Amino acid sequence: MFEMWTNFRWLLDLLDILLVAFIIYRILLLIQGTRAVQMLVGLAVLLIIYVASQIGGLFTLNWILDNFLSSIILVIVVLFQHDIRRALIHVGRNPFFADLSFREETKVIDELCRGCVALAQKRMGALLVIERETGINDFLEVGVEIDAKPSGDLIHAIFHTSSPIHDGALIIQRGRITCAGCFLPLTQNPDLSPRLGTRHRAAIGLTEMVDAVVIVVSEETGRVSVVVGGKMTRDLEMTTLKKVLSRLLEPRRLRGKKT
């Protein structure tokens, strides 16, 4: 009986280790390329200093760090609140193309590219937010409700300078335009170039908190950029924009191949 329990305990320990390793791996994938990595490095440096202060007999510094690290759980929750929220929401998947056929999926991408490139050629600014797995409604302010299929002409009309909602963001959820004229949270990243305008800062700010894909058309340069996870890919033409969107939005046929 004791031998059976020992073997069973060994299996439970192995399962426990594998689960913890998997969770750590998924967390690292989730925060990859975000500011959370820099904050983790900062916490690691503080931990090293704490250990060094114990060894070196720096009692005052050790006392300060000891009190700080005793509340490390609360500190982690405050520092990584957006990443924790994104991870929890990530459990319930909501694919962008969940209810669309493959033909409709590719048509949506084609229309998005056509509309953005037409705006870029005329130096008209635009901000398009494409929801993926994480809901974005909690991050939107104001906005005019719309329920329409994405089309290049409609996107052009919304962002035309004579449109009353051309300054806000266009929201696309589950393959349909649902809202326009929305305001997004701006990034607080101090390392960004001061040349970046409000549209680019809003795109970076939203994607730092959710997994949405944001397309930005600059009215100053006429260049198209795609922002994901707080990172920006710039100067995209029609062909490259279509490839980037197809990879990020993963039409059903591509998902089937990966599966």
How would you describe this protein?
The chain is 53% helix and 15% strand. It is of the alpha+beta class. It has a 7-stranded mixed beta sheet, with helices on both faces. The relative contact order is 0.12.
What's the domain count? Answer: 2
What CATH architecture of the largest domain would you give?
3-Layer(aba) Sandwich
CATH topology of the largest domain: YojJ-like (1
Strand order of the largest sheet: 2-4-3-1-5-6-7
The CATH class of the largest domain, by name, is Alpha Beta
Structural class from helices and strands? Answer: alpha+beta
Mean pLDDT: 81
Helix content: 40-55%
What percentage of amino acids are in beta strands?
15-25%
Q: Short description, anyone?
A:
The protein is 53% helix and 15% strand.
Q: Which terms summarize this structure?
A:
single chain; 259 residues; alpha+beta; YojJ-like (1
Layout of secondary structure:
Blueprint: H1 2-31, H2 35-56, H3 59-69, H4 72-79, H5 81-90, H6 102-121, E1 126-130, E2 141-148, H7 152-158, E3 169-173, E4 176-183, H8 198-207, E5 213-217, E6 224-228, E7 231-233, H9 238-249, H10 252-258
Parallel strand pairs: 1-3
Antiparallel strand pairs: 1-5, 2-4, 3-4, 5-6, 6-7
Helix pairs in contact: 2-3, 6-7, 6-9
